[in-house]
Amino acid sequence: MGLVYAEITLINGEDLMLAKRHIIGEEEIKKMNVKMLVDSGAYMMAINETIQEQLQLPLLEKRKAQTANGHVEEYDVVGPIEVKFKNRRTVCNAMVLSGDNEPLLGAIPMEDMDVLIHPQRQELIVNPEHPYFAQMKMK
């Protein structure tokens, strides 16, 4: 199977809360569409510094992670970020990769949105067993 990419909408979660409280207008909510590598081998979502700067996401903590080449590095964790794909949404935090590194959609946000990788079509799809809403396992 080759690499799978998906068009994902990322929205500043703090802006959403401020707009709900009528502190800022809907037009002030920072959001952007991003072509992300769908990586079920990565746990979290990872964005790059450019995306973080454009969405102005606040730093929550620093966390260490092991990269694909086996090195352990420290990353900023930012959020909250609302993540949208087709009729699905979730809210999560993201690790920040340096520069313009390729952003990754990891297993945790994929699981929460109930989306799957279709291996033949090499694309991210909404779970066909639950086409209208995400369904989670409680146990």
Task: Give a structural overview.
This protein is an alpha+beta fold and 139 residues long. It has a single domain, classed as Acid Proteases (Cathepsin D, subunit A, domain 1), CATH 2.40.70.10. 16% of the residues lie in helices and 45% in strands. The protein has three helices and nine strands; from the N terminus they run E-H-E-E-H-E-E-E-E-H-E-E. The strands form two sheets. Strands 1, 2, 3, 4, 5, 6 and 7 form a seven-stranded mixed sheet that branches. A hairpin with a 2-residue loop joins strand 5 and strand 6. The longest helix is centred in the first third of the chain and has 8 residues. It is globular and about 45 Å long. It starts with a strand and ends in a 13-residue tail after the last strand. The model has no long low-confidence stretch (mean pLDDT 95).
Structure summary:
With 139 residues, the protein is an alpha+beta fold. It is 16% helix and 45% strand. Strands 1, 2, 3, 4, 5, 6 and 7 form a 7-stranded mixed β-sheet that branches. Strands 8-9 form a two-stranded antiparallel ribbon.
Q: Strands, helices and their partners?
A:
Blueprint lengths: L4 E8 H8 L10 E8 L6 E4 H7 L3 E8 L5 E14 L2 E10 L6 E2 L1 H7 L1 E4 L4 E4 L13
Parallel strand pairs: 2-7, 3-6
Antiparallel strand pairs: 1-2, 1-5, 4-5, 5-6, 8-9
State the CATH superfamily name: Acid Proteases
For the termini, the CA-CA separation is: 30 Å
Q: Give a count of the beta strands, DSSP E runs of length 2 or more.
A: 9
**In CATH terms, what is the fold-level topology?**
Cathepsin D, subunit A, domain 1
The major sheet is characterized as:
7 strands, mixed
Strand content: 35-45%
Number of helices: 3
